[in-house]
Fold each of these.
Amino acid sequence: MRIKLKSIGLIGLGMVAGVAVSTNFSALAQRAEAPLPLEELRQLSDVFALIKSDYVEGVDDRKLLQDAIGGMVASLDPHSVYLDKKAFREMRESVQGKFVGVGIEVAMEDGYVKVVSPIEDTPAYKAGIKAGDLITRIDNVPLKGMSLDESIKKMRGEPKTKVVLTLSRKGDDKPLIVPVMREEIRVQSVKAKLVEPGYVWLRIAQFQEPTVDEMAKKLTGLYAQNPDIKGIVLDLRNDPGGVVPGAIGVSAAFLPKDSVIVSTNGQLADSKQTFYARPEYYAGRNPGDPLAKLPAALKTVPLVVLVNAGSASASEIVAGALQDYKRATVMGSQTFGKGSVQTLRQLTADTAVKLTTARYYTPKGRAIQAKGIEPDVRVDETAEGDGLNSLRLREADLQKHLSGDEADTRPVKHDELEEEKRILALAKKQKPVEFGSKDDFQLAQALNHFKGLPVKLAKADTETEKAAEKILVKPETQSDVGIKPEDRKAPASK
């Protein structure tokens, strides 16, 4: 039985990794033209009446009908969902880059919520919560056996309300009781800094409405201070996606004007679209072109895109486009594989249905769905291996996921259970990776790539390479260190 680890982004976003939203706040465009199945509708009515008359206690009519709608939509695929008043409000907040919560990145470990990182200047950060802390109780309710989503909902709430977290911290014998006041958290979508003279680290944590504007401001500022930039690392690791215009704008910053960024195909006519590197596709509500004042050098500066299993949807649009045009070297591990479009159809002033309406395709027509983007250079998360990243849930692992137009090409592993136990044991000893830090192994490999230095390839690739070397006729001076997988010689046939 395969162990799967589910991780999410920021507390309060309420988004499964890889869920992108193409917002379209309009009334339903079409009504079903086929006659409704009367027999099944009668059965629904009969069941409703039975529950009202025979159930052990009274049930609210509206709750029954909302649950029926929710079940119908949820049965389609993992990303289609009915949004009630609360969920609809949270969805709109997350797209705008804000939410009410405590301000931590989390993952599930051993049945508890593990703090990956507190967000700077948030209530959790000020309360002294640290990376690696395990949250064992919320308001004294044990979390053991509770899903990650349920735990997150307990930490959400209204601004200026208190939530009490019980923490287990390595090195402390007694649990820590930490009261935290919920506040509105504004997510920083874009980070950028000079990590070495001439080399920029550009991090997109999630694609939101302000992303393109924020990226343009930060890059313009960096170029003003350091005009001789030799390379940019575009970091999309653990970026679960977001709004499509953000992905188009980020891609357009590095590609020629009018380049095809992504295309979609679905049942409706407006689902069959092609999106280009033009302001009308990424400028959003703001007039003008937010990329107009970017330095011309961005179109040609060497570029590496870092991805992992947490890079999904809008992240995969960007990685796929830059890879198709050979504009960037994609480095890391295979992405999530969420290549479907969700459109938000508003039902009332406070409710909506988020419905899967199309599939994404890269400029060369490659399907993303249930496959993802395969990196040009596979690099593990740490020097010791890929750690928990290799065990993460991907789109192809989700129940009811849409099939892809191409098969999942991940290699089949033997003795998987033993391998996963080994990885879990190793991962517990490792510190959470702080992206952009001096200890960021994958970032270091990206910088090595720019400088023409050896790149440490993924252990799986290295082991395959060593096995192949036994049957290869290889020049004595040839070295494969840093060579892309597709450039290696294939084993000689017998």
Amino acid sequence: MPNYAVGHKTPDSDSICSAIALSYLKTTLGEETVPARLGELSPETLFILDKFGFEQPELKTSFAGEGIYIVDHSDRIQGPDDIDEATILGIIDHHKLGDITTSTPLEIWVRPVGCTNTIIKMMYDFYDVEIPKNIAGAMMCAILSDTVIFKSPTCTTADIKCVEALAEIAGISDAKALGMEMFAVKSAVLGTPIRDLVLRDFKDFNMHGNLVGIGQLEVLDLAIFDDMKLELFADIAKLKAEGNRHTVLLLLTDIMKEGSEMLVISDNADLTEKAYGKTLVDGKVWLDGVLSRKKQVVPPLQDSLA
């Protein structure tokens, strides 16, 4: 029976490409491992898989009695619902250390870099395993996505060096041009159901007993949302009520202006003032320079709810 590599719910490109890349590495090392996903894929991720010739990983939501590698998260709330009934073999992640615990020792690779695939590239180097051309291309795209083509404050020298090395393996002459092509796919939101947009890149967090949902949509021009903000507000309000959440935030991130407009539905009227020193106006606030949910949004918000 194979083991599985699986990312978080509402999987993004890093989560999916990490599962694929880690599965190949582990299988090559003699430990049969299969990539899996906990949800439907975004247009950007589908673009990456199509470009490099991958099928979608298996949609699998139950892992009871099976061995799993957790990638791109370590918060229980973001993983499989029956995670306590699985054997966690390892965690590979670039976020804050979450609350997943185990009864036996496990392999852990956690690094303060911009993308889980950067860490997996380090693992390939450590084990001296050659990266196939198509896997290198997918890993490179995931890093470009997570680092917002190196603009994110989470981006490190390691991420940039990994993209350069992976681009060479994949035969990509202009990695940044491919990154812009990916973000153009991300920006094609017209005609997409509102709930699908809200959940496209959405994560729940347990912040001192408060359930907080944070979604993010990264586009080339925020003007694309002008005619749909009222619908977005209405839907995050529904999402808050449906999940009995304390707060739901939706970041509308403009990668060209390098900032985010945050839409907020919360039990705390002064939430953004306490967390970011910014007062809401009509439920919205502009956060200049904010591109990263994990580094710039989650930590101050979690501290403010303590």
Amino acid sequence: MDRFVWSNGLLEINETLVIQQRGVRLYDGDDKAKLDVGVVLLSTHRLVWRDQKNHECCISIPLSQIIFFEEQAAGVGKSAKIVIHLHPAPTNKEPGPYQHSKFSYIKLSFKEHGQIEFYRRLTEEMTQKRWENTPASQPIPTATASQAGRTRAVGIVGIERKLEEKRKETDKNISEVKRYSFIFLMYGSITLRFYLSIASKIKEKQGDITEDETIRFKSYLLSMGIADPVTRETHGSGTHYHMQLAKQLSDMLQAPLEERGGMMALTEVYCLVNRARGMELLSPEDLVNACKMFESLKLPLRLRVFDSGVMVVQLQSHSEEEMIVSALDNVSDKGSLTAEEFAKLLGLSVLLSKERLLLAEKMGHLCRDDSVEGLRFYPNLF
């Protein structure tokens, strides 16, 4: 929350409103912010939050401050959330509601739904990066008068120029690398080789980095994904490549699978893996071929294909009987459930929730009512 600055809520030069949503509460990390429920606005340049009752209470944060974001499914008594991870606050940041925060991320809690469309539009804006189209000679003006007339470098060109200058100084002073670690790891212009050189130097503890700084930097590197991805250049092609890839996928996916109840859709796995691999992206074909080798290599994961054709990766220990019992128990408790309602209860995707219900139906434990209101499952009393 210490990344937010006070704002007048008005759109600035070259800025366009994308979407807004009422009933959104802010979280400073895992803690509720000391602010009421408000309206969140997404523009081409900023994320703006305004109190629904007191319109003078308005704060904003530039989209360029965002590292990455993810969805957090709704639970029993809990609203769906979008978790947004942020770069450190700049030293010359304007005043805001929080001076200091122990968290590097915020959460948007959607009390009146709308998170699906908001997440989609936020994804589009972060992909297009339309804020970078603002010329560097015409910076976006801020709400603080003292900032008027100050010209700042805006966009990827200015960032990359700065990074290139710092890259040349890395071998001389690793502390400089520490200061720019977040930016180095997020932009594709920085090569994987440079990323590995940073990791290597931190491992050897060269330079003037303290113990605490070393630990913190290591956590940054690990949070960004795989340090040494399996590639065709390093492991050849064909069966050997897919075997090594399967082993690395097994190590990487165990923790995320355990957090998601033991099963993930292959499309979700594809996005997760490629985000962790950075520039070394996997093709869908290579991912499928590697996943097919889980069982033959006796790894703790396996690829499963449901009757509908949906492909998932699941833990070998994941029990089909447990899935059926879970579906039956939840449907019995509620009387009836749709796939969407079941997904909210378990914190799973709607696709996987539907497959669980269909599996329980196939085994004779549930029956369906397919009407104009949608597909609903009931306990099979017959």
Amino acid sequence: MSPMKPVVIVTPFHESQIQAAIYCSKESGIQIRVRSGGHDYEGLSYVSEIPFAIVDVRNLRSISIDTKNKTAWVETGATLGQLYYTIASKSITLAFTAGVCPTVGVGGHMSGGGYGMMSRRHSIAADHIIDAKLIDADGQILDRKSMGEDLFWAIRGGGGTSFGIVVAFKIELIVIPQTVTVFNVTRTLEQNATQIVHRWQYVADKIDENLLMRLFLRSITSSRNGKRTIGAFFTSLYLGRVDDLLPIMQDKFPELGLVKEDCTEMPWIESVLFFAGFPRNTSLDVLTSTVPLVRPYFKGKSDYVTEPIPEHGLKGIWKFLDEEIVNNAELEFSPYGGRINDYSESEIAFPHRTGNIFMINYVVHWDTPGKKESERHVNWIRKLYNYMAPYVSKSPRTAYINYRDLDIGMNNEGNTSFKQASVWGFKYLKNNFRRLVRVKTEVDPSNFFRNEQSIPPLS
């Protein structure tokens, strides 16, 4: 809803056109914003309070798969859906571990980390980046060797647009079984949802790493009595057959009461459609679309949880959800553990590893524009976020950079100081923030690439 519009939108087909845009930006003094898919929760790739231009890399979407070496080069304007579709067209046993929204651009998603439904078995997208092509503030085109290991470290989890314009990533593909199993089971308060969700917290990060059970919490209308209640939706992927999944669930999480009829076996690529919300038997061609799913106005926040939330804490969440109109808000619990913990906090810039049970994504959305309507919903989610403080990580209270939140520190001038940036920097990036500042100071001391929450140089 920002009144400031871009002076120009550049949609390059060639790297030389990006170099030209960088030159023109320096000559004109108009700041550049870089957009690959519009995933940024605060829209910093296409919204600003100062004059700016957008370099939108949507036309740079080439994908080259090497099935023999299990690698791929993917340009950052490609979407996750296009990447998944292209991999599946070459192999039924190769895949990539990244997010569930098929229209998200590769560039922003991977450079911020890239959590997805296979992360407990194969960790996050950024852990599988093995090379990159980046254009720096001088217009130089760099690969891993020429950019150096510090900069290559930074763009894997620290966000790419603070350091340059990443035009391509080389990634390691993962090996998957030909058949996977999915399920989406709902439990309401009347079906002991409070107790089941409480128990889920003790199981989700420790269960078989081939299983990822995501949990969505929202207010719904009960099909039994027509009254409002809380629905807990256990949306899950198991990398294997249903007959192997059921004994695991019966042993580790019998409280859910999962039965074979709840489960569906399918190839991995069809599970991508399932988690994106497409009906069964939808053509895989839908994954090649670059048209984003229609979204109303919304506000998002995030947290990491290191100790299970007690039942009385969950009941407080239910009260907040009951305040919002049905389906206007939800909390998404994404379990960690498994292979995510195989990496140290400093191995790449993404720091959220051992010690996290799950991540929370808070979202509220509304259809009606206007300041009063927006304030009502934003105030609601801020109150919920404040309520959650005793139950989430502390010192710092951490957050996921791919769920960007300007409430935790911003500068309308897009020229962030170290002191101000440290407010959000340590929340998103923990102690890796200090090293990211050093890298920024080395590769972009003039702070050419910047936005309201970019990594600042020391000077």
